[in-house]
Specification:
It is a single chain. Helices cover 59% and strands 9% of the residues. With 80 residues, it is mostly helical. It has a single domain, classed as Helix Hairpins, CATH 1.10.287. Helix 1 packs antiparallel against helix 2. The protein is elongated, with a radius of gyration of 18 Å.
Length: 80
Amino acid sequence: MTDTPIDEMSFEDAMRALEQVVGQLERGDVPLEQSITLYERGAALKSRCEAKLKEAEEKVAAITVDSDGNPAGLKPVEGL
């Protein structure tokens, strides 16, 4: 596991960490207490990935286009 706090991870780092957690849980070779800890970490990583995707979607949605459909600039997105 990385030392980076989940709320500071990039999407890619959080996704890699989530894949590792899922792999460990799927193997089923970890004790119950560790499984619970892994599940909680996985839930937090999933939330981080969803938040980063939402940020990206909002930025993409904020790109304005001209009458020909060409990118014309960016519209400020509230909250970013």
